[in-house]
TrEMBL record:
Residues 10-19 have a biased composition (Basic and acidic residues). Residues 83-199 form the RNase III domain. Residues 20-31 have a biased composition (Basic residues). GO terms for biological process: rRNA processing; termination of RNA polymerase II transcription; U4 snRNA 3'-end processing. It comes from Aplosporella prunicola CBS 121167. It comes from the Eukaryota. The lineage of its organism: Eukaryota, Fungi, Dikarya, Ascomycota, Pezizomycotina. This is RNase III domain-containing protein. One of its GO terms (cellular component) is nucleoplasm.
Length: 342
């Protein structure tokens, strides 16, 4: 453990130097910080909207380096030196003995993960009282995923403080995908150490306030995605009329395109009416029949399909004739002329 203590002290000096450098940047470049902060917010908003629409939690990490280019919120201290040492001790430095594993950050990481997720849940629930559950979940996922926690860990210089068996081992891990997970785990471990060293009564609220300060730029930048109107209903309004109908048929078998155990459905929208026999006007795919149907309707409305354009023109003409007092016979004759033309 002496190695860990020595490493923490040495890296702590480097971290202090980095903080002074940040202070100098703040003094010299306030305007630049403001511009980068706005750019970071715009970048994250675009990423969050995309992730929310796709259900994707692997988007680019939140740009905390731009949000807090000058200085991040003050780091709450760990009051217990033994816990702080444990936070920055990788399991590789601990003897291969289950009873000794308590000295690495792994157990603290497990506890910190729970505190962070709970804090994110409470903050989002309070801050956005009208968000639907799915959108809240997507936003929370963007805050607690490994890529984001890794970015926060780097913001405070945590990775350089982690003790490994050797410099070679550190270098080898930095070059792999495991490094982001390690950095995120250390951040989670630090959160747990703060709570434990202050006691849950004081440590819990302290951590929540700190995390909310870190998340504040994300919350300010977040604009809830506008709910999409029902595409099937819009298509029916656009083309609908007596004797016109849209049905849906698979154009290829379901598969697991979205991953093991996650089905993907493929449906074609088939229109019949306005003089056209059953004709495909759009295609869509999705994780359920309902989603594939919506996607097919969206495609029909936006793909510039010739049949859709003609059907729309005929619907408008028919509605105008009906509103103008055309008789049933005249309307039927109009329909017949379209059937003959098609």
């Amino acid at each position: 453990m002496n190695n860990a203590g020595h490493k923490r002290g040495r890296d702590g000096g480097a971290h202090d130097h980095s903080a002074n450098h940040h202070s100098a940047k703040k003094h010299k470049g306030g305007g630049k910080h403001s511009q980068n902060g706005k750019a970071g917010q715009a970048q994250h908003q675009q990423q969050t909207e995309s992730a929310t629409e796709k259900g994707d939690s692997s988007a680019t990490p939140i740009p905390y380096d731009k949000y807090f280019e000058s200085s991040p919120p003050p780091l709450p201290p760990v009051l217990d030196p033994a816990l702080e040492t444990q936070v920055f001790t990788h399991s590789s430095t601990v003897p291969d003995n289950p009873s000794m594993a308590l000295q690495s950050y792994e157990r603290l990481e497990w506890l910190g993960d729970a505190y962070i997720e709970t804090a994110a849940t409470k903050a989002i629930f309070t801050r956005f009282p009208t968000l639907p559950v799915g959108t809240m979940s997507a936003l929370r996922e963007s805050l607690v995923r490994n890529a984001t926690l890794c970015a926060l860990s780097k913001l405070y210089g945590f990775p350089s403080r982690v003790a490994f068996n050797s410099a070679a081992q550190r270098a080898a891990l930095v070059a792999t995908d495991k490094w982001a997970k390690i950095c995120g785990d250390v951040f989670e471990a630090y959160v747990a150490a703060v709570v434990l060293s202050h006691g849950t009564t004081q440590g819990g609220p302290l951590i929540e306030a700190w995390l909310e300060a870190l998340w504040e730029p994300v919350f300010k930048a977040f604009v809830p995605p506008k709910p999409r109107s029902n595409a099937a209903a819009r298509l029916n309004t656009f083309l609908g009329g007596q004797r016109m109908k849209v049905s849906y048929q698979p154009y290829k078998p379901m598969d697991t395109k979205y991953g093991p155990g996650r089905q993907c459905c493929y449906l074609a929208a088939i229109m019949e009416g306005w003089g056209f026999p059953p004709t495909e006007i759009g295609r869509g795919e999705g994780g359920s029949m309902a989603k594939a149907r919506e996607a097919a309707c969206e495609d029909a409305l936006g793909n510039g399909n010739r049949v859709v354009k003609i059907a729309r023109e005929r619907k408008v003409r028919f509605d105008e004739a009906k509103a103008g007092g055309a008789s049933a016979e005249e309307l039927e004759e109009l329909r017949k002329s379209w059937a003959d033309a098609s």
